[in-house]
Structures are given as structure tokens and as C-alpha cells.
């Protein structure tokens, strides 16, 4: 069966679609068959990113690695038919969840083999995972953390195996600021209590906003004629390489 990767976070603006697009296309570039589903039926940022990629290739004549984009089905369970269709042809399926609590998001978390939760590196986003006192003490898990716990329980009851949960610290500052250390310490403490791993994600870079209209990723630059990469491009590629390695996906050896 395909390995299902879910990118989930109930707050917008954390980099879910950027993370989804780069993980999906990186796996496709390494030769894996990758399926994609955008579960955010309102904003559809991931879906539009892939549509932009298809349109750019058709317009410019490029042939870039491309995930297979499926559409949600109809009825009370629109997710299962789409997953069944993709599982017949894919090694990995990536689901991008909306930045809100929805039934579709709950269903996606229950089928996740790997869960990626991008967070902006602040206590505002930390609140997604746990309630914290003014003094920095962890008071208890958030509604989102409880949803992940329920998804784990459902999978255990079904004999479906554990969810490997990775929390990404996106938009990390370049300086070792006091707040950055406090967030890191709180995440390390919470990770032991509710069972996730922590890894650095993507820094804040203009390049990500520039790539979206053409549906491109950091790995496409030379394919579309950019021979000389800036230091920012090179650093961002290394961040992506580190992320793919940190995911510890089955039969994936980082090769870009």
C-alpha cells in the first residue's frame, strides 16, 4: 500500500502548501510515484500550486516531475475513493489539510503514516499544540493535539500502525534569540509528553513567494534555465534535503 503523508496544522500561514509541494515534487524527482490531494476545498493553495505547474509546463514546453493530482469524491466520505484511486498507482500519497478543524482533516489524520505539522517559530503557533501559562509551564494539550491522539487511537484499534509525527519549525530566525531558545525548549519538553519529533523546516525566503505563480520548486531551477544559484537558493535546497532525510520515509534515499 502507498505510504500516506499528511501535512496538517489548524492555523493558516504556517507553510503547509509550500511544504506539501516541495515534499511531493522532491519524491517525484527521486523516481517515486506520488499522488496528491488538496483537502482545503476553499483556498486550494496546494491544488493551485500544482495547476500553476501544469500550466507553466504546457506554456513553456518543459517536462518536470509532477505528482498525480486527484479530486475528492462525493457523498459523506469523499476521501476514501480518492485514496483508493491513488493507491493503485502511487508509492506515496500526500494530503494537504486546511488550516481549520474539518471532518476531512480528521479523516486524513486517521489514515496518516507520517504527519508533518509546520509551525511558525513562536508561542502563538505553539498554542496549536499545547496551552501554556504566562510563566512558560505547559498546562495541557490543545484541541489539535487531542485530535492527533484520537487518530492514533483509531489506527491502533484498526491495527494500522503508528503515526510518525514530525513538527517543523518554519521561519526560524537567523539569530539565537531568547524567544527562539524558549520555543525550542518548550517544544522539546512537549515532544516527550505527546509523542512527536522536532526538526527545522524552511526559513523565511522571498524565493518561495516567487516560485508559486509558475508552480516551481527549489529543485527545478536548473531545469528551467537558471544556471547560477544564489546563496539563498543553495541554503534553501539544503533545508529541503534535510527535511526529506528527517522524514525517514520507507525506501527513500535523498538524491538531489
TrEMBL record:
SUPFAM superfamilies, alphabetically? P-loop containing nucleoside triphosphate hydrolases
Pfam families under this entry?
A: MipZ
InterPro entries named in the record: DNA_Partitioning_ATPase, MipZ, P-loop_NTPase
Q: Which Gene3D superfamilies does the record match to this protein?
A: P-loop containing nucleotide triphosphate hydrolases
Which superkingdom heads the taxonomic lineage of this protein's source?
A: Bacteria
UniProt xrefs under PANTHER family: COBQ_COBB_MIND_PARA NUCLEOTIDE BINDING DOMAIN-CONTAINING PROTEIN, P-LOOP CONTAINING NUCLEOSIDE TRIPHOSPHATE HYDROLASE
Please state what the protein is called. Answer: Chromosome partitioning protein
Specify the species. Paracoccus tibetensis
What does the record give as the organism's lineage?
A: Bacteria, Pseudomonadati, Pseudomonadota, Alphaproteobacteria, Rhodobacterales
